[in-house]
Write a structure and sequence with these properties.
alpha+beta, 25% helix, binds guanosine-5',3'-tetraphosphate, eight-stranded antiparallel β-sheet
């Protein structure tokens, strides 16, 4: 195998999802610790109150303790080169999560052992299921009182509709969390010291070992023997193919806080996940081993660093090798260009990189030319990766600057944030440049918008809620090329004609019923959802 192939083969790229507080940040940090990317836990996630995880860039995240944007970290472990994509835990940002999942080959779902499936787990899981990517479950916080493990599995299956396969099984919980039983090797991994800030230590003992009673206690030993019998009789067969199609979720138990079970998880997970997968570009399939470089933009984030007012486009390398000295072709822009200041986030720091391989995520300086979903490839090629679907906004507000003198900054800020994909902006045919109609998927995005306009553009916003919930693009069926005029349409009071910033016309509706009503009375229009 060439160096090039082995570089791609050793890459693993996954996203991590959870309901807030289940332990996503702590687990990510422990991965970095085991990978040697940080020397001691606590470097990624700050002390109580500050909650300054590396992955949290924005002040608002620190204030609210939620992760609003997703970020990327890379580390090495036992020969693998691993890219972790963090995702926002709050459902209002599930579109962001979806885009991040587009860049991942699998997902790790963190569940709190005392709480089981929570509201955001359900929502985020749905987003994963839309992509059919492999989902690995880590049942966390076993060092605390936990719910019955069988009950947790059953809940995952009934609530999320995915079959589960416990790869290991916990021995006790809370203070009595002694270790996990590895079903494949039939060995017990007995945790001997609480890792905390450093890696945990463990010893392996075979199931029938006479010392087991002494190690884990006769009661837990008996319980384990009974549970293994039950498990072997009841649980689904392990089927790697079904795992890879997102139909069967391998389940692991552990405690990110004490590090127990983190390493066993990593070891199995890395073997079960695949090297970077091929990607579709219309009729073509681009294999990660293709010699030519290709990538797509899945996220754009402005002003990550307040000191440098920069805008970063994150792209997933899909094939070949990225070489900072070589020109690439930006398909949507129709231009050859050199990607400037390509960087990667390594644990606590951003680093400028010279090369990256399929599976890697790079952030490049974006002078305002990229949009989400854009393809970059080797000059001479012209394929486009399949587009990243957008979620239809469900909440709308009329927004303007409180200070009319700040119209320019206001528009700039709104347009930039819209380009990042966090909001969608519209205008009415008669409104000037003073106000914008903003549509979002989750209302928290309005808070982020308000905060960012104030902090990054120095603009205070006036916002007014609008009673619309649905949106449809308009296509004329009467053969006339001109845009439709409001006076020529028969619209109810809860329907509004607007335009997006590319000049496409659309209608906003207050109810599903209003959509049918409008369709019936305006036969010259076809209403399209996308
Ligand atoms: P999140 O990113 O999913 O939102 O969760 P995060 O890792 O921030 O963890 C949320 C809280 O749960 C933190 O406590 C963290 O220490 C704790 N935690 C994470 N994993 C475990 C675990 O395996 N066992 C136990 N017992 N606790 C765990 P906090 O009080 O909010 O913050 P901190 O002061 O501990 O940092």
């Amino acid at each position: 195998m060439s160096k090039y192939e082995s570089e791609i083969n050793r890459r693993r790229t996954f996203a991590i999802i959870s309901h807030p507080d289940a332990g996503k940040t702590t687990l990510t940090e422990k991965f970095l610790l085991y990978g040697g990317a940080i020397a001691q836990a606590g470097q990624v996630k700050g002390k109580k109150n500050t909650r300054a995880a590396t992955s949290d860039w924005m002040e608002i995240e620190k204030q609210r303790g939620i992760s609003v944007t997703s970020s990327v970290m890379q580390f090495q472990y036992e020969g693998y080169c691993i890219n972790i994509l963090d995702t926002p835990g709050h459902q209002d940002f599930s579109e962001d999560t979806y885009r991040t999942l587009m860049a991942a080959d699998s997902a790790v779902m963190v569940i709190d052992a005392a709480k089981g499936v929570e509201a955001q787990t359900r929502k985020l899981f749905k987003v994963c299921a839309m992509r059919d990517i492999p989902i690995f479950t880590f049942i966390n916080k076993m060092d605390r009182e936990a719910r019955d493990s069988f009950e947790l599995l059953e809940e995952l299956e009934t609530e999320l509709g995915i079959e589960t396969y416990p790869v290991n099984w916990p021995i006790g919980c809370g203070k009595d969390f002694k270790g996990v039983y590895d079903r494949e090797s039939q060995k017990i991994i007995h945790f001997t010291s609480n890792g905390g800030a450093k890696a945990a230590t463990a010893t392996e003992v075979a199931l029938g070992d006479p010392n087991l009673d002494g190690l884990i206690g006769a009661v837990l030993h008996q319980k384990l023997t009974d549970e293994i019998e039950l498990l072997d009789g009841a649980s689904a067969e392990f089927d790697l193919d079904r795992v890879r199609h997102g139909k069967l979720s391998p389940v692991f138990f552990g405690s990110a806080l004490t590090n127990f079970g983190v390493e066993p998880f990593l070891e199995h997970f890395l073997k079960m996940t695949t090297a970077p997968l091929p990607r579709k570009a219309g009729e073509e399939v681009i294999d990660s081993m293709d010699e030519d470089f290709s990538a797509f933009v899945f996220k754009i984030q402005a002003n990550m660093n307040k000191a440098h007012r920069d805008r970063i486009a994150f792209m997933r390398v899909c094939s070949g090798r990225f070489d900072a000295d070589k020109e690439v072709y930006h398909v949507q822009g129709g231009k050859k260009l050199r990607l400037s200041r390509p960087q990667q986030l390594m644990a606590a720091e951003r680093e400028i990189i010279e090369e990256a391989y399929a599976g890697d995520i790079i952030g490049v300086f974006d002078p305002g030319i990229f949009s989400i979903g854009d393809t970059l490839c080797a000059p001479g090629k012209k394929f486009k990766f399949d587009p990243i679907p957008t979620f239809a906004p469900e909440h709308f507000r009329r927004v303007r600057s409180l200070d009319t003198m700040k119209r320019k900054q206001f528009l700039k800020g709104m347009e930039q944030i819209a380009q990042e994909g966090a909001i969608q902006i519209f205008k009415t045919p008669y409104s000037g440049m003073e106000e914008v109609i903003v549509g979002v998927v989750g209302t928290l995005q309005f808070d982020v918008l308000e905060y960012r306009l104030k902090n990054e553009y120095n603009v205070d916003l006036y916002m007014e809620g609008l009673p619309y919930e649905y949106l449809r693009w308009i296509e004329r069926t009467d053969g006339i090329e001109e845009p439709v005029k409001e006076e020529d349409l028969n619209l109810g009071t809860d329907t509004k004609l607007v335009e997006d910033y590319k000049g496409n016309q659309l209608l906003l509706f207050g109810s599903q019923w209003a959509i049918h009503w409008t369709e019936d009375r305006n036969k010259q229009l076809k209403l399209l959802e996308f």
